[in-house]
Amino acid sequence: MARSPRREPAPLIQQRPEWRNLRHPFAPQSLFSEDRIVALHDMALKLLEDLGLKVLLDEARDVYSAGGAKVVDEMVFIGRDLVEAAIASAPARIPLGALSADRDLVLDNGALIFGAGAGCPNATDLVAGRRPGDLSTFRAALKLQQSFDVIHTLSPSAEPQDVPVQMRHYEMMRGQIELCDKFPFIYGRGRGQVTECFEMLQLALGISNDEFLEAPRCGTVINTNSPRQIDRPMAQAVIDFARAGQLCIITPFCLAGAMAPVTVAGALVLQHAEALGALVLSQLSRPGAPCAIGGFGSNVDMKSGAPAFGTPEHVQMSIGTGQLARHVGLPWRGAAGAASNTTDMQAAGETHMSIWGNLMANAGMVKHAAGWLEGGLTFGFEKFINDIEGLQTIAALCTPPDISDDAMGWGALEQVDPGGHFFGADQTIERFETAFYQPFVADLNNFGSWSDAGATPSDARATGIWQQVLTEFTAPDGAAERAARIDQWIADHKQAGGMNILE
Amino acid sequence: MARSPRREPAPLIQQRPEWRNLRHPFAPQSLFSEDRIVALHDMALKLLEDLGLKVLLDEARDVYSAGGAKVVDEMVFIGRDLVEAAIASAPARIPLGALSADRDLVLDNGALIFGAGAGCPNATDLVAGRRPGDLSTFRAALKLQQSFDVIHTLSPSAEPQDVPVQMRHYEMMRGQIELCDKFPFIYGRGRGQVTECFEMLQLALGISNDEFLEAPRCGTVINTNSPRQIDRPMAQAVIDFARAGQLCIITPFCLAGAMAPVTVAGALVLQHAEALGALVLSQLSRPGAPCAIGGFGSNVDMKSGAPAFGTPEHVQMSIGTGQLARHVGLPWRGAAGAASNTTDMQAAGETHMSIWGNLMANAGMVKHAAGWLEGGLTFGFEKFINDIEGLQTIAALCTPPDISDDAMGWGALEQVDPGGHFFGADQTIERFETAFYQPFVADLNNFGSWSDAGATPSDARATGIWQQVLTEFTAPDGAAERAARIDQWIADHKQAGGMNILE
Fold first, then answer.
1. Using one digit for the tens of pLDDT, what is the confidence trace for A68-90?
2. Which of A297, A395, B11, B348 has the CA that lies 20 to 30 A from A59?
3. Which DSSP string corresponds to B318-370?
4. Using CB atoms, which residue from A27, A299, A447 is nearest to B29?
5. Looking at CA atoms only, how far is residue B23 from chain A in angstroms?
6. Of B94, B499, B52, B9, nearest to B292 (Cα)?
7. Type and span of the H or E element at A330
8. Measured between beta carbons, which residues in chain A are less than 8 angstroms from residue B413?
9. Which candidate, B392, B395, B432, places its Cα nearest to that of B412?
10. pTM for this one?
11. Between the CA of residue A204 and those of A174, A474, A477, what are the distances in Å?
């Protein structure tokens, strides 16, 4: 009997260039007939026209008004002609320029772009426990995001709350530039900070403002204050990102039963209306501005009012959002999520279910795809590592298996006797190194071996993995040079007192 | 501000008649072009014709030979005309008569039938730990299977190894009849035991042998000894179940890289060939016999040779199997699975990924959908409960949400001011009781409440759930009467010494 070949342990970080640009492997699914999608869209238009949006920023109301919307006090009523014009001018395909060209992306319907959990006030791991996010955690999370090819865009996973708010954007931008080369994220916390972030990015990239305006080199997410309200910093960001030609992802926060109607259908109407209403502001600010719609739709638990994720309603909201986005022909973002408070089967189940909902919906960008716990209140390091295993599994599915005559392998089938095995077959020897996805968290040893080695569950195994990834981390080529170009600028601006938010 | 409505805690067991017969909510996906599926099918036919199957049972070789296959020693070479005739005579739609009529099922392409983890030599829970399966565990697992509407067919989750093998089939049949009313399972462990099981079932149901022969009232699974071998009890079961008109699910055990070629394409060829080869035996035994094909295809870990589940290759095997089954127009079974040794995120991730693979593939019957650990070596009670949450989520997705004008809810949208909330909206009050799937394992409390209540993870929460389900369990209507009809028969047969396997 031939000796079976043995493969070395999988490297923790698999360099897979084909995972850097994924396309959806499954056809988009539908929940609703086309005529009902038209009905949803029509009711969203009626909502914008008859009920209107409350827009808290004067400048934004002026933009709406100048564009032809009716403004009464803080209320803005948007005619369907304006919405249709915005849909027509918004791009269906958005190139996203990363810090390094080999991380460039395209956001369109069909793209599959993953981002890590974002915006968490807390972080947790099995070593240091749960604590408020700080700069060290923020930077560690960036290193993890940078290390895995299936994470495509950068996210502020944990908020660096130990940095004063007027200095925080410097550290967040410096961290991304110094440690990463993927598509960066900027918070829309007022024109002052946003403008400074744009300036840092131009310096780091060594490009002029005119070059910067040509195509997105960074993105933000703006959340409406559902229902039907856009607050000041969010409206400001829509305008400023549009005028700078940078990506603005409009994300109503429509949890059915709380900030949105208790029905999936009603929540979709509201979410779609708010997204289109903000899209109008973007397109009036600069026609053709790169703007994605979408949502974060799930439901709340009617017992506690708490957000729920990975529920049937979450999956349904995702699929409905996808249908509406394709109806208007715009790229869109969805969201995975987990409500669990710890790294348990609930957490894994919620994230898997919601990720698959996004796959069924063909979300162009899937936010919060790794590391989320507590409905986004905490970024979990072990959760991140375990989620990466799932994302890598999906990424591997984006490449169909070899179905050539050679892969079908008549020779191997002939070679092995009935009841035998293929460990030693020529085809196995030739292909075993790359035949299968190599898990890096999953432990496939039998119970005895696993027990003898300490009976470690997958969250505790992940601790060793993220620690090793951080220990071995090196910044990507070019990052040091990019960072060097902004260091003095940041020092000067810190010296001058920084920039307050909402300025 | 209106008070938000509060919902009572979800009942552990949700009675949802609409979950008893599910249809796939998503369209079947394809990995391979139709011409390559034809090529796979053709190579499978060539394999049966040129390489043949080793069939260890004399009687089975006689059936093949009488039907026109070439038999040389233990090898059987099956011409494509025989395969095509078998495909033509096998039913595309198989009604499955349960112990109670309101649990009846139909297996066809489009059906979505879930079964719990089956065939595990061990069981584990957080109270008693991991131990060899015994009768008490076998019966407890049946109670759990009976309690949840998303489990449609019965499985021998844990093997009752404390019962002597010649008596074991009595206890396994008695447990199903006494505790359950769903579609029962019988092991193919020789003609003697199978015939006795058929007899017990007829007695319990109060039907004649002629009535029994009309349509399936029970089913079995036969595994080929891949590659290309059918052992004696398995071949016997194919013949006996066919002649009795009972469901035989032919399941090659083709793990790519071990019992099958290292490629998905090659493993699919072998699996398809073995399934069709056994199908021929079934159809030669009785044309039109209810027989499902399918597989259990995944890959092995090339480091350890251990089975892996929830991998990209597992999903690909599922989708390819579905394409081949639809190509020949036959219903089929797939399998979920988890390799993890414990109730961790790996376990949940593997099961979710493989369940979704089966959804993408539109498997008519998904075996091992709840409770599997260690690649099937252990049935886990807490794993079962957590998996049920996932299956119920999928079951809820099988009913599309209400998209009527009323559900879209213009009234609610009008009623709530910008920045307000929908907790008190009339539509919410009217619908909140049934608006959302109610999780029964997931804890949606915030971190503080969850911590104050003991910081219990989802596996430990599941302990309380399965304990309560078992404590509150009552057998379904009619079960006591059915059991009473076989008690004396079993006592007499035990008295007579039972029935050895392989007789």
1. 999 999 999 999 999 999 999 99
2. A297
3. HHHHHHHHHHHT--EEEE-----SSSSHHHHHHHHHHHHHHHHHT-SEEET-S
4. A27
5. 14
6. B94
7. none
8. 43, 47, 51, 227, 261, 266, 269-270
9. B432
10. 0.97
11. 9, 19, 14
